[in-house]
Write the structure tokens for this entry.
Amino acid sequence: MTLRILIAGSRSLTRSALRLLLQEANGFEVVGEVADSEELLAEIQAKHPSVVLLEWELPGQAGLELLPALRSHNGRPVVIVLSGRPELEPAVRDAGAHAFFNLGEPPRRLLSALRAIQEGTPLK
């Protein structure tokens, strides 16, 4: 099963690096990149991704405000929050994100989480 992934982040370099990482791995299709919450909500309606990689401090609305809208979307995409602040992980999980990825960690951890989603394995 190919995962349809939407990347939401304010930094062009981070979005491009994630796109490149995912394009080089098999089984992932990047359906779009957005730089703010308004674009994110529009693209979710248009592209129906199975996974959203969400920068926690996204311009427009922060992740805490966006998670309820993302969870209520018809396709109910899996939301993996991205942040360089590992101390946010408990709050992110309490807010309803499926997973947290610290941007300081090796990319293989993110790829492992995406592979688990493909296999239907619950995320930790």
